[in-house]
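Long-time lurker, first post. I've been practising inverse folding by hand and with some scripts of my own, and I keep getting stuck on stretches where the structure tokens seem ambiguous. Below is the full token string for one chain I'm working on. Before anyone asks, I'm not after the true native sequence, just a reasonable design that respects the backbone. If someone could post their per-position residues I'd love to compare against what I wrote down in my notebook.
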């Protein structure tokens, strides 16, 4: 594991996952017309024209309505779906960042890529970054593990979760969610690389801040995990320089970390003000949704959905049949799991998908790292000689992944609408945490027989999780 060169099975695993991704996106709904949706291209074209609004003009009949946001009133009027209407112009509430480099590229090359291209690039990029981060974690903290741990981990990272299903349904929503997670995880990776060096590497730390700024400008709901990671990273930096007695570098490190985010925040505030006359309005309030969004605005996010959403995202079962691929997703539940819960009529579940713990039981290993952290933390507190080492890079990694998964899940759990793609907001961090837990279990267990049992159990859960997710993705697409 100390060898810097990747083994042949590792490369085979990576190429296999990328090949599966190509196959799933090839069976998607974009082939007939060349794209699924093209919102990023539309916005890039607007940027080239020096405007923030889409070039397409709303139908005069829509603008003549007393309330164009009432879906029933505009029933027979053609509109740009999921666009925001404000003062006679269409805008996009999706984060603008992916359209900025696209505007530069399409100014040179005569192309107009559909949003499915972004879905593939973001999901494939997220997978590669997760692999790099996992390999770094194993090489730094688990040097004596067998090589097959990395190959198995790569398959789990790439072929569990909603990623293959998203590739077969590659629209703007999947692109925005995957893009946000790609930039966030890449920022996490470079923060890890920066913090593992002594002193902290300023360039990599600044790059982490830039990538988290790109995250915010791509997927606004990622502000919660971004905020958590910035605070956690700053605490690590503060603790490192306090131990070394070089507190003067805290200020420059802080600026390298949060400077890009401040600049991004100012730019997003201007972007919102220029479009909607409010620095806090991203366009959601003015969205032309399939229901009267403004009339239900106060209940779009609510604590009342949390238990129901936890059930749908984690505990919704799948169906076993005699027909290939033998396991099939079933519809999520819109009926309250407890009679004491009263859900608004607005509550909805999109499509069919299985809960994460049913489809990916390997995630149960994610319980171990937090337990081990608490145990180690208490032991350090009791040992005066170890109090200065109370928070190290491994702790930062475990807490960061756990906190990112929890913070990333909050918007999804509070939202009135359940969709398999929203799992992406938290499943990537949770899967990495589970892989760390599997590695920890192997290290903690000293007995050869225990190693054998863990190897069999862990491999079974990993293979089961991969095969079931592939089958559910295929069944969901074809069913």
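-- Answer (accepted) --
I ran through it position by position. Result:
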């Amino acid at each position: 594991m100390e060898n810097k060169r990747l083994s042949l099975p590792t490369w085979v695993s990576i190429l296999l996952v990328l090949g599966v991704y190509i196959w799933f996106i090839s069976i998607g709904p974009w082939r007939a017309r060349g794209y699924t949706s093209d919102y990023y291209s539309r916005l890039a074209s607007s940027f080239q024209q020096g405007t923030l609004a889409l070039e397409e003009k709303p139908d005069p009949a829509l603008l003549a309505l007393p309330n164009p946001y009432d879906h029933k009133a505009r029933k027979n009027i053609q509109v740009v779906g999921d666009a925001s209407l404000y003062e006679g112009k269409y805008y996009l509430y999706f984060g603008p960042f992916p359209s900025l480099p696209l505007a530069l590229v399409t100014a040179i090359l005569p192309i107009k890529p559909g949003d499915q291209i972004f879905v593939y690039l973001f999901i494939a990029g997220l997978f590669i970054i997760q692999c790099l981060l996992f390999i770094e974690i194993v090489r730094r903290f688990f040097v004596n593990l067998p090589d097959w741990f990395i190959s198995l981990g790569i398959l789990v990272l790439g072929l569990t979760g909603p990623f293959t299903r998203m590739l077969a349904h590659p629209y703007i929503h999947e692109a925005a969610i995957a893009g946000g997670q790609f930039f966030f995880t890449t920022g996490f990776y470079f923060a890890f690389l920066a913090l593992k060096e002594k002193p902290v590497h300023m360039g990599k730390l600044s790059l982490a801040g830039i990538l988290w700024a790109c995250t915010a400008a791509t997927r606004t709901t990622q502000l919660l995990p971004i905020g958590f990671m910035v605070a956690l990273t700053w605490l690590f930096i503060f603790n490192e320089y306090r131990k070394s007695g070089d507190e003067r570098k805290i200020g420059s490190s802080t600026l390298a970390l949060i400077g890009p985010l401040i600049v991004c925040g100012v730019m997003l505030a201007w972007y919102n003000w220029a479009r909607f006359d409010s620095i806090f309005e991203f366009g959601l309030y003015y969205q032309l949704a399939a229901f009267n969004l403004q009339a239900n605005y106060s209940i779009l996010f609510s604590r009342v959905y949390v238990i129901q959403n936890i059930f749908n995202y984690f505990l919704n079962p799948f169906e076993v049949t005699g027909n290939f691929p033998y396991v099939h997703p079933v519809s999520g539940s819109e009926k309250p799991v407890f009679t004491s819960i009263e859900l608004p009529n607005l509550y909805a579940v999109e499509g069919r998908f299985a809960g994460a713990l049913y489809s990916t039981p390997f995630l149960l290993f994610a319980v171990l790292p937090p337990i081990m952290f608490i145990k180690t933390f208490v032991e350090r507190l009791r040992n005066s000689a170890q109090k200065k080492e109370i928070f190290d890079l491994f702790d930062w990694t475990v807490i960061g992944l756990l906190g990112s998964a929890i913070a990333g899940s909050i918007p999804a759990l509070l939202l009135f609408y359940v969709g398999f793609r929203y799992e992406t907001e938290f499943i990537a961090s949770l899967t990495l945490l589970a892989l760390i837990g599997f590695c920890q279990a192997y290290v903690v267990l000293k007995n050869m027989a225990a190693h054998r049992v863990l190897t069999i159990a862990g491999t079974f859960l990993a293979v089961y999780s991969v095969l079931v997710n592939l089958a559910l993705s295929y069944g969901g697409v074809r069913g």
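A couple of notes from the structure itself: Residues 448-478 form the longest helix (31 residues). The radius of gyration is 23 Å. Happy to go over any region you disagree with.
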